[in-house]
Write a structure and sequence with these properties.
5 helices; 7 strands
Length: 198
């Protein structure tokens, strides 16, 4: 009962990470416990955001709406990350978390993204990222065996980024000289949250 009246937690954060399903779930639980809508939003897959009609520009309202849609979600921050998922396969991972007698099931998927670091016209460093509509890097990266390194004879692998066009919303018209870094990667994100009937 005290949790309902104490307000958000203000202690040190767990590491914020999305490189494994358990890391994303831990980040999400921490964000819920601290009532941090921006961090909660960062844990959600693009498919989840689209399906629920959430908006990153108004994350506080989006979080309020999500709490109203999923029974027991506001208590989730006090749950622990289970030692093992309920399901794990190529398509994703499912966890079941129980808190205060409410069972919530969370599906996580891998999501591919572009991340762009660039300089604005004022010279200030900026960054933006775009979730891609697929979870595989097939067709985006090409990996081939290569001859051993001529100096120390260690094995090598050729990794090539295939040409691909991605529209980057929110980025002004850029020059090549403005770009500091362009990265492509995959992260684990929450694709669905639902209450399981007892």
């Amino acid at each position: 009962m005290a949790r309902l009246f104490c307000g958000p937690d203000r202690t040190s954060w767990v590491p914020i990470a999305y490189d494994s399903p358990s890391a994303t779930l831990a980040t999400f639980l921490e964000a819920v416990r601290r009532d941090d809508p921006a961090k909660i939003y960062q844990c959600l897959a693009a498919s989840f955001v689209k399906q629920h009609g959430l908006d990153g520009l108004v994350v506080n309202a989006a979080w309020e709406r999500l709490r109203n849609e999923v029974t027991g979600l506001h208590l989730l921050g006090y749950a622990e990350v289970p030692k093992a998922p309920l399901r794990a396969d190529d398509g994703g991972v499912t966890y079941e978390v129980t808190v205060e007698g409410v069972i919530l099931r969370l599906d996580l998927v891998r999501q591919s993204f572009w991340e762009l670091h660039y300089r604005g016209r004022d010279g200030k460093a900026r960054e933006s990222s775009t979730a891609l509509d697929f979870d595989t890097l097939n067709g985006l990266l090409r990996i081939e065996a290569a001859e051993p390194d001529p100096v120390d004879d260690l094995p090598q692998t050729k990794i090539a980024l295939e040409p691909r066009v991605v529209l980057h919303p929110g980025s002004p018209s850029l020059r090549l000289a403005d770009i500091d870094r362009l990265a492509v990667g995959r992260e684990w994100k929450i694709a669905e949250i639902r209450t399981v009937a007892n």
